[in-house]
Amino acid sequence: MLCATAAGSLLYSPPAAYCNPNSKFPCLSSRISSFILNSPKRWRCRASLITTSDSFEVGALVGSYGFMNVTSYSGFQSGSELSYSPMDLQQLKVQDVGEGSFKIKLYEGRVAQGSQRGTPVLFKVYPGQRAGGIEADMMAANELSAHSSLQSSAEGICKNLVHLIGGFETKTGEQWLAFRNHGKYSAADYAALTSKRISQGSSSREKSWNSFQQQKDMEYRRYFVIRILQGAISGLAFMHDHDRLHQSLGPSSLLLNTISEKDAGYLIPRLRDLTFSVDMSFDSISNLEGARTLSESLWRRATAAGAFTALEKRAFGIADDIYAAGLLLAYMAFVPFCEAGIMDSLSLQRLLENTFKLDLEATREYCLADDRLEEAVKFLDIGNRSGWELLQAMLNPDFRQRPTAKAVLNHSFMSGSLL
């Protein structure tokens, strides 16, 4: 049915008849709800989740996006006589990757009833089995499981993770997950808008002649980027402390509540997109035999890299997230400091992995020769090249040598004290 808001706009409120009558929660999929119903330690989250569809109002379609689907894998043999190939270790060279078979839709909305009435939400909608197959249900259930686990922590909800408010299933089997709407911009959006602004400033005749103001603007940008990275790594550290891997960390999976560089003090970056999050508890890793899970590719890569025991696989998983965080650091160090089109995530990854084989000293020498990358180099040069040092550690070809998320947070470059 349609209902009018106080502002006069029309919002769609899914009728209760759309719910799954077989679910223990009237409007939460039985396939999804089993993840929280069967775990006693998650009772805090279960008690607070909104699970009736008529408690929500659904607004405009925000957009949709797909996902990368790993369809095959071929490992490599490591040994003392073989040189490391970074693409063999972690990246797409050893995998056939294609676009997923369905798209996930995003809708704006709000809570219509109860104590959280009026709270703005963002719906993430997974298609039912008819449209998306069993994979869609697995992904929706996995994301719900990840959030319910993390939000039931005795420490409370982490401010650097998006907050799941609830969810429901429609009659056609669609899984609707409702997240608090923390903002509409991602770190990727911020980087793209900033690089575009740099390009416009470079070509404009009105380019500021005030070198002092230009210097202040660059200081704001550097601090803002550091704050983004601090939030991302803080969220990752919380996940790792609570036996969860992110496994799809990137600039698009980091939500920002502001993109104004002068408002860095109010910035709260939040990790989202836990669709492929992995439970890395020892019990979960020990019971992988014969189970079809979304983490199969990760554990195959772990075995190929020489991680055989549960402890070694756990260490590999953490290091894999740190590698992705290293690529995020590199992205945020380059894209917001360069003109549009000079650098993008894929080009940067190829530069680091293929061209320079994760040799960050050689990468720096190359970048020094390109005036278009000058500000990026200066940023990573802060504190006697501390940014390059941290990046080299996070992208170490040997996963055993990469730092933990907490160690990254404690690095001098990440503290912001060097700015």
From TrEMBL:
PROSITE patterns for this protein: PROTEIN_KINASE_DOM
Query: Cellular component terms, GO, for this chain's entry?
Result: chloroplast
* Molecular function GO labels: ATP binding; protein kinase activity
Q: Which residues form the Protein kinase domain?
A: 91-414
Task: Enumerate the InterPro entries for this protein.
Answer: Kinase-like_dom_sf (IPR011009), Prot_kinase_dom (IPR000719)
One protein family per Pfam: Pkinase
**PANTHER family to which the protein is assigned, alphabetical:** PROTEIN KINASE SUPERFAMILY PROTEIN
- Protein name, UniProt field: Protein kinase domain-containing protein
Organism this protein belongs to = Linum tenue
